[in-house]
Specification:
Order of helices and strands: HHEHEHEHEHEHEHEHHHEEEEEEHHEE
CATH topology of the largest domain: Dihydrodipicolinate Reductase, domain 2
Strand content: 15-25%
Distance between the termini: 40 Å
Strand order of the largest sheet: 13-12-11-7-10-9-8-14-15
Number of helices: 13
Bound molecules: nicotinamide-adenine-dinucleotide
CATH superfamily of the largest domain: Dihydrodipicolinate Reductase, domain 2
């Protein structure tokens, strides 16, 4: 191991090579040096990453990349106010050659995640990559291999892992007071064009402004199509539909709370029922994941044509003695079963606020202002790990579980059958 606790293999595998790579790693470990960030993809999420990075003293945005001239220009102008030396790139490969970039943020559509993450890792960069990790199991495996070979620090953008309310949920679940849990039920509902991914299309979006071939990347070739560029979530070539865009958030949160791992089986259903124009992926989607070893099932459903009066997210964890409910109004609640026997003193602060058996009581955990900082906290966790070389809150192994689970549900939906995960062959069968 090197003096920074970083394995020699990482140093050897980095593109920078030899002592240059060692200097980069030393610089990252030095708290006086800001971590140099390169952002790839300055779209909707990328804008938020820019705001977050600019507000974080620990890092400096030194490069941005996009294939849409208007967005690239906007990003460079925005970052320039804090860093006049920021570089703008139209090709992410050039950004990876930038020696000031220690770590990259990948905020492109999902079909680019694996290529950019792998290239970034072998270029010696650490990687914060947006969810869903990938569109195929093979890509997910290739990412894990690259990350482990290069000893890259990887954070997947599942920010719920940095949200205090999920830490509290994990504490309550971990205490055992729920008794055996046999069912987890999660629903997300939306009722708007934007919620259904019918995003606005810029009038000035032309092939001259957008490098269409670089958008397509490894996706099948086709003529320039603004609907596909701005509303890529509706097409299988670029994402995994509701599975990777929404389900992955909630499933990953439950994986964090309960440590479930990849399910044994999955069945899925749904269809294109309301938003019928120019759409390949379902707008109503249901998936059931079974964990026979844990004796429980996770049920997940989503519609884009009802938001339950704005109550758009609900998670229920059903135990023999008590239930956790989260989402309705943003508070976390625990209800005791009518004949539930449980010892609430096992969880500090819970005893006085939980209801008596059969009662619905006031929420015992109210989400607070600090909860809203969770996105920043997730990014800060990444920066901390870039320096310490510790594992992030959503590392490559957890990211792999997220990807496989989402992909299982897509395959079950497309093939209209129950799919299984075979741990021996590491394949969906
Ligand atoms: N964690 C979250 O809560 C969260 C929220 C929203 C989006 N996301 C994720 O962020 C990612 C981006 O989503 P979005 O809504 O910002 O999409 P978007 O379409 O608004 O932005 C994507 C950007 O990537 C750029 N791009 C595409 N191909 C590129 C290439 N080869 N090189 C450089 N730039 C390229 C596009 O030009 C565009 O500006 C997705 O993976 C999405 O799932 C995560």
């Amino acid at each position: 191991m090197s003096e920074n606790g970083i394995g020699e293999s990482r140093v050897r595998k980095t593109a920078a090579g030899g002592s240059a790579a060692r200097d980069v790693l030393r610089r990252r470990a030095n708290p006086l040096n800001k971590i140099g960030i390169g952002l790839i993809g300055a779209g909707d999420r990328g804008k938020r990453h820019i705001a977050e990075a600019l507000a974080t003293r620990d890092c400096q945005l030194c490069a941005v990349c996009d294939i849409y001239t208007k967005r690239l220009d906007w990003a460079v102008e925005t970052v320039k106010k804090s860093n006049p030396n920021v570089r703008g790139y139209r090709d992410y490969r050039k950004l990876l050659e930038d020696k000031d970039v220690d770590a990259i943020i990948v905020a492109t559509p999902d079909h680019w995640h694996s290529r950019m993450t792998i290239d970034g890792a072998y270029a010696g960069k650490d990687v914060y990559v947006q969810k869903c990790l990938t569109r195929t199991v093979e890509e997910a495996k290739a990412i894990v291999k690259a990350v482990k070979e290069t000893k890259c620090v990887l954070q997947l953008g599942h920010t719920r892992r940095s949200q205090p309310v999920y830490h509290r949920m994990r504490e309550i679940y971990g205490s055992g007071i729920l008794g055996p849990v046999s069912l987890v039920n999660i629903s997300i509902c939306r009722n708007s064009a934007r919620g259904a991914w019918e995003w606005a299309i810029d009038e000035d979006a032309t092939p001259e402004m957008i490098n269409w071939n670089e958008f397509l990347g490894s996706a099948p070739g086709r003529p320039f199509d603004p609907d596909r560029y701005f509303r890529w979530r509706k097409y299988w070539d670029y994402g995994t539909g509701i599975s990777g865009d929404l389900l992955s958030h909630e499933w990953d949160a439950i994986n964090f709370v309960m440590g479930l791992g990849i399910p044994s089986t999955c069945i899925a259903s749904g269809g294109i029922y309301y938003w019928k124009e120019k759409r390949e992926v379902p707008d109503v989607f249901n998936a059931v994941f079974d964990y026979p070893d844990r004796r429980l099932a996770v049920v997940w459903n989503c519609t884009f044509s009802n938001s339950a009066s704005g109550v758009n997210l609900a998670t229920m964890i059903y135990g023999k003695h008590a239930t956790i409910e989260y989402g309705r109004g943003g508070d976390l609640e625990v209800y005791v079963e009518p004949k539930g026997k449980t010892d609430f003193s096992a969880v500090p602060g819970l005893e006085k606020e939980a209801g008596q058996p059969g009662e619905r009581k006031e929420p015992f955990y109210r989400t607070s202002r600090s909860d809203k900082l969770y996105v920043t906290s997730h990014f800060q966790d990444f920066l901390d790990c870039v320096r310490s070389r510790a594992r992030t809150r959503c590392n490559e192994d957890e990211a792999f579980q997220e990807a496989v689970t989402a992909i299982m549900s897509v395959q079950a939906y497309k093939e209209r059958r129950m799919v299984k995960w075979d741990p021996a062959s590491q394949k969906i069968v």
